Amino acid sequence: MLEIILPYILIGVLSAISFSQAVIHVTPDHFPFQALVQGNLGGQAGALISKKHVITLAVDLNVSEMVTVYLGFLGHPLFEKYRNEGQGQIITSKKIIIHSRYMNISDKYINNVAIIVLSHPVQLSSSVQPIDLLSVPPIPGLHPNISGWVAGDDSRLQYNSLILHDVDTCIYLYGTEFLQTQELCYEEYPSSGLNLVGNPITVNNKLIGLLTFSENCVKHQSYCSDFFLIINLFPFITWIHTQIGAGVKSHDTSSPNILDLQKPDDLIEENKRQLSDIKVLQNTTLKTINKLSKKSNEMERAIEKILAAQISDRRENKDIISNIKKINETVHNLLKRLTNTILSPEET
Question: Which ranges carry the Peptidase S1 domain (predicted)?
Answer without folding.
Answer: 9-245
